[in-house]
Amino acid sequence: MSNLPKIAWIGLGIMGSPMSENLIKAGYSVTGFTLEQDKLDRLAAAGGTVAKSIAEAVKDADVVVTMVPASPQVEAIAYGPDGIVENAKSGALIVDMSSITPQTSVDLAKAAKEKGLRVLDAPVSGGEAGAIEAVLSIMVGGEQADFDEAKPLLEALGKTIVLCGPHGSGQTVKAANQLIVAVNIQACAEAVVFLEKSGVDLAAALDVLNGGLAGSTVLTRKKDNFLNRDFKPGFRIDLHHKDMGIVTDAARNVGAALPVGAVVAQLVASLRTQGDGGLDHSALLRSVERLSGAEL
């Protein structure tokens, strides 16, 4: 029998499926639940155990990991008679890796504590590729002792793992991350259209730019998306729209101005209204192309 903690995994989407599989590869026993049968079949094929409900998944778990799209989904799986808080065993650690509002994380930690449970908010950055390769950046909020306990598990999922402060801090840092990523993608998209309209060899230009101060993880990860107009979702515009709402609202609450971020948030929102919400966030290129006269 393994001495590793038993894991319940709730949410097996684009990120959750490869992340849970990396825990299985690392030797953890993972019991999962999600709403899509094909995702449950995938977990079973990877060596995980399929549960029929959240309650069944979490009842014997030492650690409950959640990875769902937004605050409403976290609240839906956490609360109520069939939720995590009512059904997890006393002393269990909930590690919420969703990207949600900081206040939602604070509220969950408070509610869980009343039931003898502990919580870390631990959102991630790195997209689908980072999840598959187990090189995610994981920003954590919560107690030091709980972070220390969870760190070996998190090390099976990512490379940069940092406790950023008390409950909600991980989500605040993730909001800042999403601001930086969106603005960076927008800048790259504008550069791509400018370069192409100028008749420059785009592949060569992006290579040399990425070797200098203009280089970034965003450009490295998204260069082929730009070159091939391949917008298969690694991180959907719909989700980045949600995240830009989180960061603009949080910034307003603390009195921080986001002049560039506010513009990019509107560009992300406009992509959704044009039917591109299901595409990868590198599809911000499509917005620049439309503004530059292209008919898509």
From TrEMBL:
Keyword vocabulary terms for this entry: NAD, Oxidoreductase
Which GO terms of the molecular function aspect are on file? 2-hydroxy-3-oxopropionate reductase activity
Domain 6-phosphogluconate dehydrogenase NADP-binding stretches: 6-165
The protein's matches in Pfam families, at most eight in alphabetical order, are given as: NAD_binding_11, NAD_binding_2
User: What domain of life is recorded for the organism?
Assistant: Bacteria
* InterPro entries for this protein: 6-PGluconate_DH-like_C_sf, 6PGD_dom2, 6PGDH_NADP-bd, HIBADH-like_NADP-bd, HIBADH-related, NAD(P)-bd_dom_sf, Tartro_sem_red
Which EC number(s) does UniProt give?
1.1.1.60
Q: What class of enzyme is it?
A: oxidoreductase
Q: Which Gene3D superfamilies match?
A: N-(1-d-carboxylethyl)-l-norvaline Dehydrogenase, domain 2, NAD(P)-binding Rossmann-like Domain
**Could you tell me which SUPFAM superfamilies the record lists for this protein?**
6-phosphogluconate dehydrogenase C-terminal domain-like (SSF48179), NAD(P)-binding Rossmann-fold domains (SSF51735)
What sequence ranges are listed for the domain 3-hydroxyisobutyrate dehydrogenase-like NAD-binding? 168-286
Q: Which PANTHER family match?
A: 3-HYDROXYISOBUTYRATE DEHYDROGENASE-LIKE 1, MITOCHONDRIAL-RELATED
Q: Which family does it belong to?
A: Belongs to the HIBADH-related family.
Identify this protein by name: 2-hydroxy-3-oxopropionate reductase
